[in-house]
Design a protein that fits this description.
The chain is mainly alpha-helical. Helix content is 74%, strand content 0%. Helix 2 packs antiparallel against helix 5.
């Protein structure tokens, strides 16, 4: 695994990374969920109707831009293969920011979803999550594995969290397997990795990473 050996990491990107992780954790906690026994249509209707839907997604949207900013600042300071993971992370994070924007807009179509069971925006969300979350997950699995920003057990937690998001996007949103919806909760583990890694970078910004 290649990590930074000759470049110091300034604290500011770490502060941004930790802030993004906290934001994603809050968004996950605030995100509404369906009720047991509901089909996919009713789960979506109940979530879109929940007053916390826009709050959670505004939080996720802002956090995504902060995360992309932190990764952009870390790119030139990180060696291969972590740098490749950061590049993929920036692209997938910006893509997911666009997806969060679509989710915010989808709230206006809750009546259509309740009546027809679908809408153009809902269909777009399905496609964007099924494609976006797996690539986002891959980026952060590679980043967690190929950096020393956290202890080994925290890297494992981050990998599990990222993997859960990838599975959630592909299986739950893409294939509408409602029973696996709780897998998104496991995805909060990635936020834990972001916070730990960000704090580590911020506190050790003047030291070399080897």
């Amino acid at each position: 695994m290649e990590v930074v050996t000759h470049t110091t990491l300034p604290p500011f990107p770490g502060i941004l990374l930790a802030t993004a992780g906290l934001g994603f954790f809050i968004a996950g906690v605030l995100h509404p969920s369906g009720h047991k026994g509901q089909d996919f249509k009713m789960v979506i209707v109940s979530m879109l109707s929940d007053k916390m839907w826009p709050v959670a997604h505004w939080c996720a949207l802002v956090s995504a831009f902060i995360l992309a900013w932190s990764l952009f600042l870390l790119f030139d300071l990180t060696k291969k293969p972590a740098a490749h993971a950061i590049r993929l992370g920036v692209i997938s994070t910006v893509f997911m920011a666009m997806e969060f924007s679509v989710e915010l807009a989808a709230r206006t179509e809750v009546g259509r979803v309740a009546t027809d069971g679908t809408s153009p925006l809902l269909s777009l969300i399905d496609v964007m999550q099924a494609a976006g979350w797996p690539f986002f997950a891959l980026a952060f699995i590679l980043l967690a594995v190929n950096t020393r920003w956290t202890p080994g057990w925290v890297r494992i937690v981050g990998v599990i969290g990222a993997g859960a998001l990838g599975i959630g996007g592909l299986v739950v949103q893409g294939l509408h397997v409602v029973a696996l919806g709780p897998v998104f909760i496991v995805g909060n583990a990635l936020a834990f990795w972001m916070i730990w890694a960000g704090i580590h970078i911020a506190l050790n910004g003047s030291k070399k990473f080897g």
